[in-house]
Amino acid sequence: MNLVWRLIRTQVKPHLTGLLIRVAIALVVASAPYAFSFLGKWLLDEALQVAGPPKAQASAEAGQDAPAGKTSLTVEWKAKTTEEKLHLLAIFVAVSVGIHVAVTLLSMVSELLNANMVHRMTFALRTRIHEKIEGMDIGYFEREKVGELMTRVLDDAGGIPANLINLVVNSCTQVGMLILGTVLLFRLNAGMTLFVLAALPFYAVTCCFFLPRIRKNAEEIRSRGAAFTGHVIERLSSVATIKNYAQEEREVSEFGRILAGNQALSRSQQGLNLYFTTLTTLITSAATLAVLAFGFVNIKAQRMQIGEVLAFYQVTAQLFVPISALIGMAAVLQTLQILALRIYTILDTPAGLMDAPDAVDPAEIKGDIAFEHVSLRYEEGGPFAVKDINLSIPAGAPVCIVGPTGCGKSTLIALLTRLYDPTEGVIRLDGQDIRKIRVKRLRHAIGNVLHDCQVFTGTIAENISYGAPDAAREEVERAAKLVELHEFIMEQPKGYDAPVGTGGIALPPEELVKLGIARALVTGPAVLTVDDTYAGMEETAERRIRAAVRGALSDKTILIATSRLSICEDADMIVVMQRGKAVQVGRHEDLLAVPGLYRRMYMRDKGLKAVEEAGGRGNNV
Length: 621
What we know:
The protein is an alpha/beta fold. The chain is built from 21 helices and 14 strands. Strands 8-11-12-5-13-14 form a six-stranded mixed sheet, with helices on both faces. Helix 3 runs antiparallel to helix 5 (82-134), helix 9 (200-237) runs antiparallel to helix 11 (248-300) and helix 11 (248-300) packs antiparallel against helix 12. It starts with a helix and ends in a 16-residue tail after the last helix.
């Protein structure tokens, strides 16, 4: 309940005026059946005078003149002529039509108002959740499944507004209608009203039995649905692996098994809802039929008129509508509780990386980098991904980071761009702790070319300028020419405006690598990091493009994490990583001249026989 109240406080407040208008309209519309009940009573007992008040009817049966009297609602009763009855009948028709028209117009206004509030609330909530997710550190996405996050952003956030407005408006409306209906019943006949209210405990027993089961099923359905979405996304994104191992039948079988389990749970939920609804309907029917029976007894005993009994019967039937609706609100409340829990699990998760209160935006970044005793654990208590790294990289230096798979090359680059913060130690950029530089400014200053370049739906030009949306077309073309992508682009029917991504052209792997490099160059970085990207290119083209990039960024720092050791030959500095530690640092010639990991790797890369070093053979790489 605390989470639902939190939802109400945070989401309802901006729309309070609209909700109050909706509640007022809903009360008027919901009162229409009560109005028709008493309008029908007035038609039978006062307008058409099907039977006079009990005393008048008794006098008529005794052959006496019908005396004037008052009905149970203190309306003066007098015998009316046929002409008067026709006139009152016309009034009845006019009032009935007026009520129908008013209800229709008010309902239309209410629905338009509701749609507007739902859309605005959904937009605000989805935007807030998406903004929070975008602000999470990269480790969060490694822990959470993409399908699960998609479900929370799209389905859960989309389901909250309609349910929340429904809960607030209907709860207020139905409580109001329950109070009004009870007052009207007491006004008509207090004794019969007490009998009607005696049916309420049966509703309570029904709720106590069914609602906990309905809630438990709802939680399980939501959880399984999110897991199913994640499963489908994971499998579809890994279709090549599935086909390579000929596991299509297994995946179809697994899909069917999960789907069958989810459907069985949904059928169970439908059964619970059906039984719950059926029992409440039976209780309502039994109560209203009993009222009708007692009413006929009162008519025969001349304690009530026909119109009064029918009005009581209709109000009683209407009284169970708000009761049933309020019971139904319990299910809505449970759904909201589940949705709120899933939403606030994200919103309440602390952002892993945040700007320090005293963070600054340096006007100029030269690119001088220092790692001072830097260590990183991905999980508290887990092994170190990198351990006690000490490096000093002068601005403008081309640096290569090499080592066996999993040695920590990519982790160093990720630390520099604050995809992670070090568990221990400090990373400095131009002497400034990077945690004291605003994240947005830091990442604008560092152009990061990832190993796998992601293409977004849009044009080639939009993908190249993704990191600098305001870049002029000339800058985009200059970057494309520098990485030898321009010719390929001009071969496309629409050139730089050719669509890529979903529904667009599929870029060949090498052109995709070039696009990733061009994307980083357009941002005008002070530091360029390349995470094993060149390995996806033919070596001759790689040499040309690497030389062109270095020429264009001659005064910029370039860090290349690579498994292609030929790239290291003209680097100013080589950092050799092994098991998370920088075991060697130096130039190509110097490292090749001494026994160590770099020389073994280089010789193996060139197909030469490994060298035995003093003290035994080197470690395998």
